[in-house]
Amino acid sequence: MKVKLSKEEKKALRNQKMAAFKHRISNLRAKDTKEKTKKAYRPPGYTARKAGAVVFWILFGLMLFVVGVNMVQPSSSTSQAAMPTEKEENDSVKPEALQFAENFVKEYFTWGIGDDANNGRQERLSAYLAKGIDEQAGLDVDSLEYSSKLLDSEVRKVEELGENKAYITFLVKQELSKTVEKEVEVPDPKDKKKKIKKKEKETETKQSQKYFVVPVGFEGNYGIYELPKFTFLNEGTQLEVKSETDLKPVSDNGVEQSVKDFLNTFFGSYAVDPIEKLSYVLEDPSVNSGLNGSLEFVEVKDSKVYLGKKDGQYQVNANVIFKDPESQSQFTTEYTLLVEQQGSRFTVMKLNEGN
């Protein structure tokens, strides 16, 4: 049975409960303040050490990332080293160079007889020739008996000679013509039953075919950097041309004269002899034919003899005059030879047409 309390007792009970509630709240606040005070305390250097640890782990992670990437992919420098470098193109073997050489061939093989024709040819060639080269490009205009015009020219060989230089070989076909007087028999205007002799002029023509080497160089524009020359090709052959430097002239006059005397023998054979006979004075395996009679040897115009790389070897630079047996025209061409003395005789070990 529930006991009824008086008003005073009820009031005292409420006050007691309220006091107990306030005491409980006070205890909770004190505990919270104590815990906050405890958490807020940091020993000296705590924050710096904490920040240093964070930075260390960040840098360590980045280092691991970089190492991983390098293991998967090679470095850019290694990749570039592994890639082959692209060879720079020689301007002297481009289509424009071939066209330039072909235009030069047309002007070279166009000539006539007399001062006007010679002056006209000289003027046309001046647009092609480098300074210092003979104005007629080696053609002896005083020896001309025939006029010439180009019928056809075909590229047969293109040989690079280093930076922006090349030899371009053409098969050239030309027509040679000259005016001749012939004595013919014609009816006598006074007596038609009789015949009289009369001189009449007529044009004599013939065709010629040769291999012609055009030295083309490029330095801002195209030009012929040395005298052109004649050669003979068994189609597909190649002559290797190398440039020599730091050459020393031969000081022994006797040796120099002996080498120069040998040049007359060699070029006389080179002009007309078959390879079987030419091989007695020529041991260059890259040359399998001489001129095969397409030109006649006239003389060695001038030559310079230098010491070779080995004892008994000599490099010779020679300007040689040949004559066309059909037109009687004379041409000066340049040759470089590696001559070796073998006992009492000389042999051409390497024939490089031009430097």
UniProtKB/TrEMBL annotation:
| Transmembrane intervals | 51-72
Comp. bias intervals (Basic and acidic residues): 182-191
Q: Does the keyword Transmembrane helix apply?
A: yes
Keyword list (alphabetical) reads: Membrane, Transmembrane, Transmembrane helix
Enumerate the residue ranges of region (Disordered): 182-201
Query: Pfam families, from UniProt?
Result: TpcC
* InterPro entries documented for this protein: TcpC, TcpC_C
The record's Gene3D superfamilies line, in alphabetical order, gives:
3.10.450.540
Entry protein name: Conjugal transfer protein
UniProt organism field: Cytobacillus stercorigallinarum
